[in-house]
Here is the input.
Amino acid sequence: MKIPHLLEKQGFTPRKSKVYLAVLAQGKATTLSVARATHVKRTSVYDILLDLLREGYLSEVTIGKKRFFVPEDPTRLIQQSHERAFETKSLVAQLVPIFARSSSRPDVHFYEGALAMKNIMEDILQVKGKENRYWGSTADLIDLFGIGYTRKYVARRVKKGIWSIALLTQRRRIPPEISASDPKYLRKSVWLPRSIEFSGSLCLYDDKVAYISSEKESFGFIIKSKELSILLRQIFDTMWLMAETQAAT
Here is the structure.
């Protein structure tokens, strides 16, 4: 990489790089000699020279009535880099608490299409609490992702030791490994009354809420929100109790 580009990475503007390199090459330069060498306006050159002087890249000497600018050892760049790194570290230390306070706001990720929505399924497998609450139609999942993927997904969930507590809609017959209430599949499931029918699925895990639509609308999202998660868990638990009570009668 050429020197001007490297200087720009150190925070120099293109004109500032030209002026600095001209002084470095001349060894002892005046505003006029730098302006002629760089084809930059004399007034602009003077302002840049003063900046370089303040930043410690140049020093000045007066010989007779003339003012000359003399380059300092270029290793000054290393010192400047260390100083910037220290200042950046100090700045980051002050910014992190501000970011932490703002991170209490809900975090939303949107996905469109079956392939993209597999990211939602994969995120559910990362649950720290080793349990999810599933609410919806497993038939829609099969239509969206295919029976092969859905079966393998259940096997991966079981291998990770993640329990699924499922409220299922009674739309059509589903293979037992995908819907049955069975410790072998680490699943507790109850069927919602036939009068309750809807498309799509909700999954509650940790402090996240995931929604996966049917194949028809083909979109989904993940919301990370403690308040929303608690609210939907309470609704889920109430509906679970109602469905369980009805199933027992």
In short: The chain has two domains: 3-72, 107-248. The chain is about 50% helix and 20% strand.
